[in-house]
């Protein structure tokens, strides 16, 4: 990435296999710009949005990786579409579980983003800042005064989509579902869809189907359906993916 004063910051990520790492990034659409065999394995790839370097760390376990980098882009949806199309051509599918994987694009308070996790567990947080600082999408404003349920939903949403920690997101939601009837129907709908999405991401398909059914059985007016449009699209995508599986 380029700094305001013209300098460039380049992340250097560890990996277990240079070949596996390069194959993934080239599948995404990155260009191999350098490869070194001696005195140690090292490689560089470049995309118009970023440059990344790799070195080998044989004892690395992807599930224990803490390496990450935030990449600020001007059109996150276009880049997400490009990466998904390239991955589908290379792998005949878009990997959404395990290593590597790519998450959906989601709206957070600070930005709209998706996460890209490579074969070594390195994480690229790729986001586009909202036009106004702190802007929160309209369909996330369910209550003027946040309740315990709404706070739990916001926390779980961040855990699931900003931090990619589905198990923690599930625990947060499960603790407050006993109070679901006290929450607005639109918030309940979004919480059920989020819980279903989290369950599907870790192959808990029975749980995912149960929460999809809960969401679909909620009575929503036309106005309320407009408020949960993003969640409704996610629910339909979940159902489609589960039917294919």
UniProtKB/TrEMBL annotation:
Signal peptide: none
Top-level taxon: Bacteria
Entry keyword set: Antibiotic resistance
Any GO BP annotation: response to antibiotic
Residue intervals passing through the bilayer: none
Protein name: VOC family protein
């Amino acid at each position: 990435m380029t700094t305001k004063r013209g300098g460039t910051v380049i992340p250097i990520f560890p990996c277990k296999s240079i070949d596996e790492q390069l194959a993934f990034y080239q599948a995404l659409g990155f260009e191999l710009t350098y490869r070194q065999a001696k005195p140690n394995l090292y490689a560089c790839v470049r995309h118009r949005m970023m440059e990344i370097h790799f070195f080998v760390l044989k004892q690395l376990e992807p599930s224990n990786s803490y390496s990450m980098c935030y990449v600020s882009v001007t059109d996150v949806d276009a880049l997400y579409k490009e990466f998904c199309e390239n991955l589908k051509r290379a792998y005949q599918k878009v990997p959404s579980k395990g290593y590597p994987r790519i998450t959906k694009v989601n709206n957070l308070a600070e930005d709209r983003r998706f996460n890209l996790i490579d074969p070594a567990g390195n994480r690229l947080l790729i986001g586009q800042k909202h036009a106004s600082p702190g802007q929160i999408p309209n369909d996330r404003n369910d209550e003027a005064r946040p309740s315990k349920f709404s706070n739990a939903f916001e926390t779980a949403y961040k855990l699931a989509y900003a931090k990619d920690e589905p198990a923690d997101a599930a625990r947060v939601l499960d603790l407050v579902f006993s109070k679901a009837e006290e929450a607005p129907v639109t918030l309940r709908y979004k919480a059920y869809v989020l819980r279903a999405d989290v369950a599907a991401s870790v192959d808990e398909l029975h749980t995912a189907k149960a929460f999809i059914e809960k969401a679909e059985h909620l009575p929503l007016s036309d106005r309320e359906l407009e408020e949960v449009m993003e969640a409704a699209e996610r629910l339909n995508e979940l159902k489609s993916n589960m039917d294919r599986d």
